[in-house]
Amino acid sequence: MIGILTCVVDPITKMLSPIGTIGEFCICGPTVGKGDVKSTSLDFTGDRPVFMTGDYARMLPDRNVDFIGRKDLSFFKVHGFRVNPREIEFIVTKYLGSKMDLVHVFSAKDRFDETIICLIYKPNDVGENDLNSEIRNIIKARLPYYMMPQIIKKVAAVPITKNGKTDLATLKQMCLEDQKIAQRFSENTSHNTSMTEVEKMLLKHLSNSLSSSSPIDVNTNFRDQGIHSLTLMKFANTLLNEKVSGFESVADLFDYPNIKLLAQKIESVSISPKSTMPNKEKRECEIAIVGVAFRLPKNVQTLAELWSIFETEKCLVDNFPGEREADFISRLDEQDFQAYKNEKRFKAAFLSSIDKFDNEFFGIPASEAKHLCPEHRLWMEVATEALLDSGLLSEVQGKKCGVFVAISHPEYEKIDRSNEAVAVVGREGSMITRRISYHYDLKGPAFIVDTACSSGLVAFHEACEAIRSGLCDSAIVGGVSIYLNSFQSGTHHENMGTISPEFCCRAFDEKANGTVAGEGVIALILEPLEKAIQDQRYIYGVVKGSAINNVGRSNGITAPSKSSQKEVIESALSDASILPSEIRVIETHGTGTELGDVIEIEALKSVFKENPNPVVLGASKANFGHLNHAAGLLGVLKVLSIFMFKEIPPTVNFEKPNRALINSNLVVPSDKTRIHEENLVAGVSAYGLSGTNVHCVLGNFSNHAK
Predict the structure, then answer these.
(1) Same domain as 451, residue 342
(2) Chain-wide mean pLDDT for the chain?
(3) CA distances (Å), origin 368, targets 295, 379, 418
(4) Co-location of 431 and 468 in the same domain
(5) 246 DSSP 8-state letter
(6) What whole-number distance in Å separates Cα of residue 16 and Cα of residue 615?
(7) How far apart are CA 66 and CA 20, in angstroms?
(8) Position 293 in a domain
């Protein structure tokens, strides 16, 4: 009907519920009377009255409404988290509805007077075995951990009041009877001969701290079994009161998050621990690149596919994918849609898809995965592929493997405004390193890097330094660049003066007039060269040295500096013990901006002017656009592809050289050049809008071995 607005609203915040999230179905428009007993007003509807129907529903991506049922019970909070009982019932019924006649979720007070979640169900077959384990597995896989019921109980019949309604008081009493069983549960563990005495002791104390009689798996993390932090506090206090040797504080329950690991920690307390202090003295060692994985436009995911793009001089800049734009717009509310619809668009080298994610592989419930921003999703998959490629996937658990990721703040809150804890964490940029270190139990340093355009190569440099200083034995290095939409804003607005009006990057060409954006996710695995050779890993290339500096006070806060670029290249060569005359290729920052190109050329000329042979300049931004935080790592990938195919590719969009190149020994290739040297050394540069400059020196490794 014309003028009628239907929506799904969060019953607590009174804001629009995100797509797929259960809330109350509402109707707004002239058909709603202001005197209606169920009418109200909401911030996003202005003065128009809104009718709260009392029906639970969720909005689907195609704008259809999926009705769940009547709003007969309100939301409740458990340990600070908002729980929708209907959402739990919906998930259980969806996957196990054929096995049960009824499922009912409600809150109750446990023997510690704390709110817990109870779930009762009536199987459709009286002889049906308990479905408790199946129910827990379904909820664990598809809902946040805090929505796991503490008590799950099978009933033969549902008690009814005199008025013919469900007798909730009796149901609660039936469920809370299980707590008495819980107090006797630990007595049975003493007969389990497969468990150590410490494991039995820990299981006994944990069982006494629980609100239910649910079986405890000694190998499964506490959180994944629905054991929340308050229960762990009780458990920790019990162990401290009992003066359990080797248990120090509640922090141990987070460092050793299941019974098996905690028991091993306590049992090993009598063994003198080896010193874990890192060697502060910098090790003089070269670093090997042993794993590579990435997602680039046109589904480029291998070095062979990457080389083909460079070799055939393809430029992947195009319009924003229609499917992605339609998906983005469908998630906007009316106000944002009106704000965006008239914005200018920019062209770039875009990924075809950013929403796919194998959440079950990483053990993340679907209800949490839907709140993960694309940066988190793609990074987890690409980092895993890089570990697999390196052969380290099965070896890094519990080891000092560092994680260094270049990323800016994701913009996912534009389409997911949920204030749920999983949503806030799911769009937080700093959590991207935690995702991998948590999943694979990595103990090395893990942090993000944001120095704008130089971020990826800065992360690469920091990882090498961490390995050399002994802070970690190996490292995962990454860079992520993703756009939710193609609207001109921020650094990609035409007012910045850095974007080419034709969206064409002509690096070092006489007609260069700006850069162009690009998307990509890149992961590299690093470890000491000596260790890589010993373990017979495939070595893509060797990091011989690197350096980092800052422009300081220059002609302007965003202005580049010839002297600082010259200094960082010379410092990197010194760190690598390489002479300028040994460098054959430089993969430049090469933005294609008029000022940026000239300053970079002048800095390179001042370093390599004495070289007897020409120095070939590469510029991958002409093919893939400016990948921002991943740009420097794309330069590394290009050099690795040159090492692999022993050829230097031509530079796309290059016709006539910039005047600064004339009468110099710097060459921008127009044709493919064969490499005959056995040992090839190349440099990679990245210069950030933040003023942070970085340069890395890479060499090929001829003795390939898997």
Answers:
(1) yes
(2) 86
(3) 23, 16, 11
(4) yes
(5) T
(6) 58
(7) 9
(8) yes
Give the relative orientation of helices 132-142 and 85-96 as an angle to the nearest 10 degrees.
120
**308: closest CA among 667, 685, 647?**
647
Predicted confidence (pLDDT) per residue in 525-572, tens digit: 999 999 999 999 999 999 999 999 999 887 778 888 899 999 999 999
pLDDT surpasses 60 at 141: yes
Domain of 40, in residue numbers: 5-70
- 459: Cβ contacts below 8 Å, ≥ 6 apart: 404, 405, 406, 449, 477, 478, 479, 633
Statement to judge: residues 12 and 101 lie in one domain: no
Q: What is the DSSP string of 332-377?
A: S-HHHHHHHTTSPB--EE--S------TTTTT--HHHHTTS-HHHH
Question: What is the secondary structure of 650-691 as a DSSP string?
Answer: PPTT--SB-GGGTTSSEE--SS-EE---SS-EEEEEEE-TTS
Helix-strand-coil split of the chain, %, nearest 5: 35, 20, 45
Helix (H) or strand (E) holding 106: strand 100-109
d(CA 12, CA 39): 16
244: its two tokens = 């359990």
Residues constituting the chain: 706
Geometric angle at alpha carbon 339, from 336 and 342, rounded to 5°: 135
CA distance 530 to 655: 44
Amino acid at 102: L
Question: Distance (Å, rounded) from C-alpha 102 to C-alpha 124?
Answer: 8
Q: In one letter, which amino acid is 600?
A: E
Contact 697, 570 (CB under 8 A): no
pLDDT at 275: 42
Joined tokens for residue 82? 């908002």
CA distance linking residue 151 with residue 498, whole number of Å: 60
Whether residue 44 has pLDDT greater than 80: no
Domain identity same for 300 and 198: no
The values of phi and psi at residue 191, to 5°, are -95, 0
Residue 431 domain flag: yes
Three-state SS for 101?
strand
Q: Measured between alpha carbons, how far is 101 from 521 in angstroms, rounded to an integer?
A: 47
Rounded-to-integer distance, Cα 221 and Cα 145, Å = 11
User: What is the Rg, in whole angstroms, of the alpha carbon atoms belonging to the chain?
Assistant: 30
Q: Which of 54, 70, 86 is the last residue of a domain?
A: 70
Cβ proximity of 406 and 459 under 8 Å = yes
165 lies in the same domain as 186: no
Residue 334: CB partners within 8 Å, gap ≥ 6? 44
Measured distance CA(277)–CA(297) in Å, rounded: 43
> Could you report the per-residue pLDDT of 271-323, keeping only the tens digit for each?
444 444 444 445 568 999 999 999 999 999 999 999 999 999 999 999 999 89
Q: Name the 3-class secondary structure at 445.
A: coil
Asked if 368 and 377 count as a contact pair (C-beta separation under 8 A), the reply is: no
